[in-house]
Amino acid sequence: MVFRLGIFAVLIAALGAVVVFGFTIMKQGHKAPVVVAPQTEQVLVAAMPLSGGALIQPNNIGSTTMPVASVPVDAMKDTPQNRSSLTGAMVKAPLAQGAMLTNNSVILPGDHGFLAAVLKPGMRAVTVAVDNVTDADGLIWPGDRVDVLLTQNIAGAPDAKKIAAEVVLSDVRVIATGSELIKNSGSNTSNGSTATPVSTVTLEVTQEQAARCLVAVNLGKLSLIVHSARNSKSANKTPPLPVWAGQVSPALSAAQPTEQPVTTVKVISAGNSGEFKF
Length: 278
Hints:
Blueprint: H1 2-29, E1 40-46, E2 61-67, H2 80-86, E3 90-91, E4 106-107, H3 114-118, E5 124-129, E6 145-153, E7 163-177, E8 200-205, H4 207-217, E9 221-226, E10 243-244, H5 245-248, H6 250-255, E11 264-269, E12 272-277
Antiparallel strand pairs: 1-2, 3-4, 5-8, 6-7, 6-9, 7-8, 7-10, 11-12
């Protein structure tokens, strides 16, 4: 009797093992298939609508994610180097917001024919040295409109008129900055590039403005004043009158009076009187 019960227990255990094994096999067979996500790439796009001939600034550059298989061959990947190279590039044809930036859609600074393509008909390009401090710490970019300010020392003039500042060019377009016709973005920007001190700018000017600018270079220090993008005036606007040191500092004007004071002394002697002025 005991022997039969033992055999029965062994059979029950074996049956249980078979059932468990069967459920395991069934569970594995019904597992959802593993889906492999497609590889993607970050590519550069226009962050806003850009007109043909526009010079790209850092805030004009955006990015989007695309499957690697769908990325065109001439697309520009989102890297600090590509963002830097696009700054100052000229857009060949109008681009809608979100349109992909490709090597064929822009002319990069330094490319053959870049200046000829950027300049408007009848205009010239003149490169001049400017004061680094007034370069706005990396905030002046190709495409900005600026005034060119000349500050000079007048030899032999009285203190009140020894230093003068005047606008020699008004509302001209910056088409490049730096010796390589490109400027990296400001210090430690979000795209990882760093600022390089820039001491030259290339401006789009008329022939007469180019002559004025080259004369100004030999008179003193040039600085840039940025125009508002919403209120650009004509480049032929008559420059304002010079500003003299005495107009800025009343102390200098007071130190150099235009008329010498007159002192009058009355002298009385032996009943006679008289006045002496000196």
